[in-house]
Amino acid sequence: MLQVFLESPEAMPANVDSMDEMQLADTVGRYLGDKAYLVVLDDVWSSEVWDYLGVALPDSGMGSRIIVSTRVIDIGRQCRWASRVETLVHTPLDKGSSLQLFLRKASRWVGCTPDPELKEIAAEIVRECRGLPLLLVAMGGLMSTRPQTAEAWQDVLDKLRRTRDLELALPAVLWLAYNDLPSRLKACFLYFILFPRTYCAKRTALVRLWVAGGFVQKEYGRTLEDTAEAYLHELIRRNLVQVTDYYDYGKVRSCGVHDMLREIIIHKCEEDNFGASVTRDAGKVRADVRRLSTVDTKRDDFLRDVSAGHVRTLFMLGASAASTSSLLAIIPEYKLLRVLDLEGAPVDRLPEELPDGSCLRYLSLRNTRISKLPKSLRKLTHLQTLDLKGTYVSHLPAGITRMDSIRHLLAYRYYSGQHPPYYYALGVTLPRGIGQLRDLQKLTYVEATRDKGTLVELARLTQLKRLGIVKLRSGDGGTLCASVAKMTELLSLSASSSDITEPLNLASLDPAPRKLERLYLRGPLPELPRWVLSLRNLQRIRLRWSSLKGDAIVHLQCLPVIELALIQAYDGVTLHFTEGFSNLQILEIDHLTNLELIRVEGSAMPMIHKMSLRSCRSLTTVPEGIQRLKHLKEIHLFAMPDAMVASLKEGGMASHVPVIRVYNQHRDISQ
């Protein structure tokens, strides 16, 4: 229900965070009372939801609609306050569609027809799936790992039938898909027990957690994180894990599992004592539980019966102050703890003594109120991940240089006041000796020191894949460039100058990291660094406050970028796209106050599908040549001149674009 206000131009009601369900429903209902609305509710399980929605979603006779998806047929019929209820029953796929979906997920059959013998076996496998898409894609994913021979496929079919004969509560197809996993993937799959049903696990965090949990086997020529990424993509390819969100530049952002697959995870975790998730209503957990997550637990005694000597992983999601205090009081007893995640917990300090440093691999204090780290942190010599994002820690203690196994160090927060500084990420200062942490792969965000000591030591961190540094002064550029030139594995670089007038001098970087995929530069650029044009793997570039002039942007057209953002980055009057940007899909133009004209010619930007224009007060006409952009699907306008909005709506030049949204007026003018 909060989403109603998050997408509204009106202010969020006061005290909304402290409202109970019925108070929030009443507030939403009063807001929607004179409005037409469309609400989509996915996967509703209980008719009790109507008690709240009857208050929150008034039937005011204005043509509003509610769409509900559910596996419980009576859910819709039990909505008695709607003026009309229509039930659409989703029937299983027919034989032909089922076979087509199955063969497409088996992947090797795309564009060709299997021989008759294989197709006959495929039809038998499809019959076992009963036209259910989840079962079809799971079996298709399994078969994509098998040789394309009749013998291999018949073997799978025989196993499927034997599994079916066991009369299991869940479909045999899903059990077979799970049992077919290699042991290394089974543990990674079962790890989803620790996330709530509606929770989307972030890819980057999941990879680090699998590594910390010891589930990832070392492979020659690969980092553990690269191998963990391969595990995740294998689970996705097998259709056992679903991608829930992508970054704009194409990488997986978050993922989860289907409810029916989650039932298998729950069953196996109980059977093997892999782990458990405790909700606010759950009772006791077994004393020898090895991995435990708590979800909205308000009790302070939830760990009373748990044997600290067995627990390897502990998450606290939505914990109360009482339950967090209870945990922190006994945390030194958890000698074998490998993972401790306190993200979002109401805690402002850690106990002076932390769990035994010989075991702890992962410590997340993200979005807590902690401002200082205990001295015992230096004992965590095997720690791989320290996540301080969103905390108030501004300086890392000297003891951190003894943590020579650290691989991921995230320590920054975003300034959230009414007048944010030019650099929106606030970093931390590092102690001398940070260059000793040779295994570091991610280091964000670091404040440049006046003596340049930190910048010099960065040269020793040659395994870095992501580096973020803030508060750079004009004289720091040469030192930073000399260090970055040695980071041959670098994939992401973010550099911010100390304020809006301080030049960002990065011209001397040579050679540039050839693997670089993402580049974020914040600060005045005397000129576009030449090395930028040599980045053949660059996917995303965001320039903020760069104040570029002349044909600087034209030079970028040779890059293979997927996403380009220019945020007060160009002082010219015209943006002229002639050729190039052949891979560009997303273009964001923000606060280019001098810009009067955007012109697209030739074959420029052939793949673009999303364009955002924000606060360009002199841009009053539709981009010339926009009709050339045949793949453009979305145009988003934020605080743009009325003349621009009118020309876009009435001119017809963008009639081929399905979605056109104007946010300053909260209107959608899609054709």
From TrEMBL:
Residues 194-265 form the Disease resistance protein winged helix domain. Residues 14-106 form the NB-ARC domain. Signal peptide: none annotated. GO terms for molecular function: ADP binding. It comes from the Eukaryota. The keyword Repeat applies. Keywords: Plant defense, Repeat. Residues 310-637 form the Disease resistance R13L4/SHOC-2-like LRR domain. This is Uncharacterized protein. It comes from Oryza brachyantha.
